[in-house]
Amino acid sequence: MTNTEWPTAPESNLECPKVDGRYQIQTVTPRVADVGGIPVNRILPRRQRRTIGAWCFLDHAGPSRFPEDAPGFRVGPHPHIGLQTFTWMIQGEVLHRDSLGSEQVIRPGQVNLMTAGHGIAHTEEATGPEPMMHAAQLWIALPKAHKDTAPRFDHYPELPRWQERDVDATLLVGEYAGRRAPTLNFSPLVAVEYLAEQASDLTLSLRPDFEYGLVALEGDIQVEGEAFAANHLAYIGGGREAVRVHLTAGTRLLMLGGEPLGEEILIWWNFVGHSREEITDAQDEWEAGSERFGKVPGYEGDPLPAPPIPWRT
User: Using CA atoms, how far apart are residues 126 and 213, in angstroms rounded to an integer?
Assistant: First the structure.
């Protein structure tokens, strides 16, 4: 997944303001972008909210059906530093390749996690018999102490699943409800997907030292009685032990949480850095074909060109 924005992450508001004794909930509105030939709702980063814990990027891709005469979802070789790419597959199949030699198809109900660290390149292509694509693709900013960790790729076909008031729940990363996901993480994080076949009311347990966001990938939700349409994120901050959520029938809810990162980060194109110099050096090395990012074997096509760095112009 690629990005062309240049936000700076300010300090997180751990606790949303109170009015008349009630926490206020921040609405984060998405924008529509095109990635790899399909429309996506870009939910993070936005002007209203740059990060939730170390979560610094969220694209909701699809659901999209590819026309018979179109190639479908296809993203050529592109680099990353300073982050983990996190793909939660809902429908369809995507083939991941990277410059470490990894080659892995991700299917519904699975997570692909690529730790870029010092540098890696990868590609993504829709595959399989179904001409569909529906996924949540996220980035996790690596803390400064781990930004240059060695790159690696991990695939998680099995994740903790349970039912909560007849709502199907899947723990994607972190610890929740007495369960622990196997997913590699470098800072305290959590992500849970809830799928409600029928209209349901849930009380979600929260950690007061985490900040949280809730977004319906399908359907719509009410958070403490306030309505949120699909792809509109409800940022509820921190300092809470629970939150009440109503899910309409067919709603797919994604809960993201984490300990505030406490570090300023920069995002430019496909890079997450802690300074302009880090990002400038990485882009220069990508454009020079440096061994830092390597080559992606098995992919036929040109690497993606980097856009001009704004602070250079």
Answer: 29
Q: Is 145 helix (H, G, I), strand (E, B) or coil?
A: helix
Instruction: Write down the pTM of the prediction.
Output: 0.93
Average model confidence (pLDDT) across the chain = 92
Q: What whole-number distance in Å separates Cα of residue 141 and Cα of residue 120?
A: 15
Using H for helix, E for strand and C for coil, what is the string for 225-284? Answer: CEEECCCCEEEEECCCCEEEEEECCCEEEEEEEECCCCCCCEEECCEEECCHHHHHHHHH
Q: CA 63 from chain center: how many Å? A: 16
How many CA atoms within 13 Å lie on the side-chain side of 135?
A: 28
| Rounded Cα–Cα distance for residues 252 and 62 (Å) | 13
Q: Dihedral of CA 61/65/67/71: which sign?
A: positive
* Dist CA 63 CA 68 (whole Å): 16
Q: Which two tokens stand for residue 68?
A: 């018979």
Rounded to a whole number, what is the distance in angstroms from the first to the last CA of the chain? 25
What letter represents residue 173's amino acid? V
pLDDT tens digits for range 137-166? 999 999 999 999 999 999 999 999 999 989
- In the three-class reduction of DSSP (H, G, I as helix; E, B as strand; rest coil), residue 50 is classed as coil
Paired with 139 in beta bridges are 57, 85
Alpha helices in the chain (DSSP H): 276-287
Statement: residue 189 has pLDDT above 50: yes
The predicted-structure confidence for 103-137, as pLDDT tens digits, reads as follows 999 999 999 999 999 999 999 999 978 788 999 99
